[in-house]
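User: Once you have settled down, look closely at the record that follows, taking as long as you need, and be ready to discuss the fold:
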Amino acid sequence: MSTTSLVKGTALPASAPLPWSGLLALSTAAFTAVLTELLPAGLLPRMAPALGVSEARIGFLVTGYAVASFAAAIPLTALLRGLPRRPVLVGTLLGFALSNAVVALSSSYALTFAARLVAGCAGGTLWAMLAGCAARMVPPERRGRAIAVVLAGITLALSLGVPAGTALAGAVGWRTAFGVLAAVAVLLVGWTHARVPGFPGEAPHARVPLARVALLPGVPAVLSVTLFLLVGHQVMYTYVAPFATHARFGRTGLVLLLFGAATVVGVWITGVLVDRRPRAALLGALGLCAAVMPTLGLAAGVPGVLPVSVALWGLAFGGAPTLIQTALVDVSGPERADVATSLQTTVYNAGIAVGSLTGGVVLSGPGAGALPWTALPLIALALTVVALNRRNAFPSGRHSS
């Protein structure tokens, strides 16, 4: 069985090896984007005196990036959708390089904040492209695994990159850490240009209006699952430290380490299952996430329950984004995946914001013990949407469209 290359019309046999170099370039781009976004959060005490502001205002450098990414994903993707994919991808990497270089050299908070906005715009554009590029590099039968390889860069950045970047900043200085990130982005430009195929943009006559992409069969269901899962997840994850204190488990660092390590395992398992049993894998992941919440709500104070539950939660959540992203590419088609993913990027960031806000309200009111019970119905809603949308959005097997 073979499929046809979208670049030159050549046959791509389903048994051909994955284009590892190109996929790893995209994965490294994802790794760099996440590290660029989150590194200031671990450097508040070091950056604040150098820029002459409070630690809270350094925290706004993360907020500004997220807001710019949220605001830019849809309009920039729509504006650039007709251009060849590789130059746009290279442009986003140059945006990261420029932003991180400015942060490394700047002594002005205003200039640093402006550079972070540039990075956020680059990030919003990058996230809209990664899954679509990965999907177009392989036959449909291997699409899920390719996307899993690329999105593994996110997991590795969260579990290893941010702690390593913080440690590097402690050893050689925070400015050097951002300088290294800028250099990595420049090196990625060459890697991407050499190994990521030059896919064309959407031809004018083939472009589907944004609103129609959002209403393609299956797309609303996938976006709903994204929103419900992220809100529910973020309700708990944002406030895992006070919840650990509530459960009389004082080692928050260990809890986060267990979650991060488990997500890496979850991504690996997903890579094995995503092209064979995508629906079963997603139902299992969401079901496990849902099952963990009442366990935390009822028995988090029992010795051993919190770390085991958090590990299972990380295992389940680690694979869920890849499964949902693959479903979105399937229902939108690789050619429209950039636009569909820009919608998902916006929904994803909205879910993070709403979940964090909701968790904060719950923490200030009923308290940390109510967090799992707040998250549970939201994750259950995501599970229900998947269960009810077998035909259009979440079929049992992969198709070759």
